[in-house]
Amino acid sequence: MDILVLIKQVPDPEALVEIAAGGKSLNIEPKFATNLFDEYALEEALKIREKHGGKVKVISLGSAKAIEALRTAIAMGADEAVLIEDESFAGSDGYNTSLVLSRALEKETFDIILCGRQAIDADRGEVPQMVAQFLGLPHVGVVVKLDIADGKAVAESTLEGAREVIEVALPAIFTAQKGLNEPRIPLITGVMKAMKVQIPKLTVEDLGLAKDMAGPDGSKTKILQYLPQKKRPAVQFIAGEPQEAAIEAVRILADVERVI
Amino acid sequence: MDFALTEEQQFFKKIITDTVDRMVVPKAREIDEKDEFPWELWKDFTKLGYLGLRYPEEIGGMNADPVTAMIFYEQIARGSVGFAQSVIMNILMGTYFVYRFGSEEIKKRCLYPAMKGEKVATMCFTEDQSGSDLAATRTTAVKDGNEWVINGTKMWITNGPHADIATVLATTDPSLGAKGLNFFLVEKGTPGFSPGQIIDKLGCRGTVTGELVFDNVRIPEENLLGAELNKGVEYLAEILDEVRVMTAAMAMGIAQAAYDEGLEYARKRIAFGKTIGNYQLIRAKFADMATEMEASRLLIYSAAWKIKEKLPSRLEAGMAKMFATETCLKVVDEVTRIWGANAFANEYNPQRHFRDARFLLYGGGTHEILKDFLGRMLIGKS
A195 and chain B: CB distance < 8 Å anywhere? Predict the structure, then answer.
């Protein structure tokens, strides 16, 4: 069972993010982490390998700094890693990120592709579906349980108020949701391996793409401006008896704030 | 000249930082409150393999260089210094002489299990009337046939009450002073070896520290940990600098934990309509803290690098220990001022850092004696 895992290095959730003067870009404190949802994807890949054998290869598209995320994946137990790095990729949108990734994936043999349901920086959650489209593969999103047997997968996805059980023939793409597993903490033997490993890099030319197909020139969307978030309003007190106040609180959370 | 950590060291720092954040930080408060050896965390953490940090890969270690080891010591202390002290005792002082001088049989029985966390190790120097003044050691080792007989009482022993293996400093000839000192391995279960009083400490809680009693403890001849008799002080010198720089690294761990709390508070706490980080007097505190922590780390890494390169490092190791610990004391104090009265509440962390930092002043020797030692090195015997 050969499994490919797509991972992205994102700003650390605690990094300071500020809108640069002019609103055209963001100033992000240089603290990085592997996207949390991708860690669930990697953990699931490692579990599948433990059960069914095969290998786990991790692929990331990013700057040289993303090597750290790939080393972390090796430390956790991935067999191989590759970084797609080329300065022309900077500023890619979801469309050409997916295009570039799918070109890299085409060169691989695999039964399963796993990735996080979304990256926690841009939060768009669009790349896995587009990769599936480019590769002509089935896609099952927001997976919280995944069983593999006889060339098929049975996945459970979360829905509003229910879980959907889906059967799909392999190869297929799955995106990991919180609850799928608990990512392991690397053993020192893995850390030592990761410290020494040489991680190969791929460029635009290696993927047979023209320079203008990657990066902003090949993007279908364009970020016009960054606007500051609405300031969090002051604490809202709900008057009344506890039972009525609780009902009102739930109404506000569900209908006004739309967070539940 | 290159001041940067290597890519490997940077990666190691990230991994151990994440590991500590996930495993140790969430338990720190409970460890402090319970003040009991955190067995569950010990088992989970030691499974990862870090107790073999300094030892060769051939015996299951990581063969980490001293700079990498300092990164580890800082991070584990950032999580919980109470837990860190127990872990570091197994990594460094508690196993060094067993590794260096133990027979293969002893290593199989004591070192390799200690590297996996299956055995808790300790090192016993201090007595009620001796600490830095090693020559005043009163614990004796007397040869009787092919055995050594140990008698004495040790105090302030980290991991002491739970120790499976103890490296014990004892004199074979009190008339020789420091030149009569040797290290001996005593294993749990040996008749006459027992734990005594446990010390209720101000800080570094969770590391169980206490008395160990040796009452006619008979150990085999091969448990003398030294190639030659009466060279104990020379052997001790082999790790003294590393131990001092390790203490400095732990100080930075506590300082960083406190600093991070201070930073978060300064960014969120509002006074007079603005977050307090907008006020110059608060900003000045961060400028001072960050500067002195950076200077401390440069001393730590520079001394560790000298140890790695086998260059003279006695002076630099002492400077690093003293400077980093004093910096830590300032940082934990400043953070309590940034937090205001909340720092005085036991439900928040700044008070724990404030208490923990004090121990590093005395652990490994007081600064009064360290300054005297450094001054003597600098001036020479005049």
Answer: yes
